[in-house]
């Protein structure tokens, strides 16, 4: 997977609950409003080319194309508590670093 992104290092989260909590606080701080954590869940790898009436049993935010299934991605979702613009957001969250470490296997290592 790292080669797909042109990366030679991967970061692993060793305390997902604390990591999500720190990131959620940083998002709320950046937006200036409270959020509700909807959870961290595995992505479902299925086609997006379906009818809007189809129920895959998972939110659309968790659907990825089957060609990415080797990524085994987990996505965290926060819901706003009020109405507002939905747009990409860059946050600063140095406090989340303590819950992460480099993944031991790197490209080119045995």
Q: If helices are DSSP runs of H or I spanning 4 or more residues, what is the number of helices?
A: 1
SSE series: EHEEEEE
Q: How many β-strand stretches? A: 6
* Uncertain residue ranges: none
What does this entry look like structurally?
Helices cover 15% and strands 23% of the residues. The protein has one helix and six strands, in the order E-H-E-E-E-E-E. It has a two-stranded antiparallel sheet with strand order 1-6. It is flat, with a radius of gyration of 16 Å.
Ordered list of secondary-structure elements with their pairings:
Layout: E1 11-13, H1 16-31, E2 35-42, E3 44-45, E4 63-64, E5 74-80, E6 100-102
Parallel strand pairs: 3-4
Antiparallel strand pairs: 1-6, 2-5
Summarize the model shown.
The protein has 110 residues and is an alpha+beta fold. It has one helix at 16-31; strands spanning 11-13, 35-42, 44-45, 63-64, 74-80, 100-102. The strands form three sheets. The protein has a two-stranded antiparallel sheet.
Keyphrases for this structure?
two-stranded antiparallel sheet, flat, 23% strand, alpha+beta, 1 helix, 110 residues
